[in-house]
Input
Amino acid sequence: MTLIKSISGIRGTIGGKTGDNLTPVDAVKFASAYGTFLKQNSNKEKLTVVIGRDARISGPMIHNLVVNTLIGLGIDVIDLGLSTTPTVEVAVPLEKADGGIILTASHNPKQWNALKLLNDKGEFLNGADGAKILEIAESEAFDFSDVDHLGTITENDAYMDIHIDEVLNLALVDAEAVKKKKYKVVVDGVNSSGGIIIPKLLEQMGVEVVRLYCEPNGHFPHNPEPLKEHLGDICELVVKEQADFGIVVDPDVDRLAFISNDGEMFGEEYTLVAVADYVLRRTPGNTVSNMSSSRALRDITNKHNGTYEASAVGEVNVVELMKKNNAIIGGEGNGGIIYPEAHYGRDALVGVALFLTYLAGQEQSVAELRAGYPQYFMSKNKIELTPQIDVDAILKTMTAKYQQENISTVDGVKIDFAEDWVHLRKSNTEPIIRIYTEAPTQEQADKLALRIIDEIKEIAGI
Output
């Protein structure tokens, strides 16, 4: 199945049959459901929604369908055009809008696109609201406006610059300190909107930018997920250019990865660790990441006398726990930085600006900074099962097997051992169990994963 409906939105591959893929009909259907949901939950006569998209090839088509569907529902649209996920999140409250839609499939390849849905705070919808939208979509109980009450479109292409200004105005961002360092940075924008906004931010902070794949044409030059195996070109270019470090973002600019000055990966998990280290040094407090993220954040938080908590996987879950625990920074180990002083959403611009300010105050290279953090290594695997196998029963058996250990069942099964951990999560769309492990060495992480896989197979009888 290549059309995935969830509480956070709808994503799928372009083309194919209606209901099986993200076709024009499906885009209109789910835009209609979202607009209908907003109208059902508001007493206002006129609603406004902010729309932005990444640079993927299908963007203009999906964008036109979604915008005009909202117009047909009588909803006014503020059209940001080519934008980023965090830019739309910033724009919604600034415009006092009733919601927002980002048209992006995030780190997925170019054949994918998606509608990511926001509330009036510019935050992702919670599970209950997402479920209501799915119900409305299934019922197709849409009531479109007559000709005298259609919505309007207001185009506003200033929000990338406004977003940059918002970031530069953060108290912990010091552009002047960064300018004095005369840094040179390579940027891989994966030929999407990050290729515009990240270099703009850097140049305003006095950084010399070397651009790599920064033409926003939607032709991704490599798999757009910012993982080591996809980033050979920038790793080589950082060394060739003798740059201070490299920056990689995904197509919608909510995930951030660094390349150290020696051409090695800083580590996607360590983006949040480094930025949190800086924030906690300046403003002590609590942190949150999800259960599949590195223990290194916990260690850094403890070092600064704060409290660390782990949420279920998913940005909306991280944000919910951050609010509950008054966390001053949080995010996800995939390079997602959530800094409430800016807004409650993953934001690569915030991460870049805070990291640069932190680096400017350290008399060491990026590689030396990375070497100073607790060393952990992850192994990410999955085991495919037949549809007849009861995945929930397997997870219950694993919970009972390790009941003497520190266990959480908030999101699948997370087993914390003294030196390492394993997190087991079932997929909602296919009969698989995802297996994440972390340990002080890669060998230990891989060995733990293989052991758990063998145990699951034995329980499942395969």
